[in-house]
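Re-run with default settings, no changes from the original entry. Doing this only to confirm the output is reproducible before filing.
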Amino acid sequence: MANKLRAVVIDDDDDDLGFIMETLQNTFAFEINGFTNSVEALEYILTHAVNIDVVITDLKMPMLSGFEVMERMRENPASANLDVIVLSTSNNPEDIARAKQLGAVQFISKPHSYSGYIEIIQAIMKLVQKEGA
């Protein structure tokens, strides 16, 4: 993993996307590509996979759901092994199980405050430590 972490963040809600990106940029030296359009995000992931360390995605989105994004990522050899963190308003056990089945390394319920994003930061720190080992 490079010194500057490279992330793709996908969330159809502009406010949530901005909040996530701000949290990551204020906590780490992140190079972030944010997308509200999941189709554009997937195209970017598939063509830039070698330059991505982690994908953070919402589940419930128009066009392609987070599940569909993960499915298509796993079908492509270039993006098949990218770490994915799911950030969703859902806490449905079936959604969590499906996300894990599709290779999500972490499933986090969307927090309602800035301090709630600490769990996201902790999940990313674990990925960084794992990759650095």
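Helices lie at 14-27, 38-48, 66-75, 93-101, 118-132. The CA atoms of residues 120 and 126 lie 10 Å apart.
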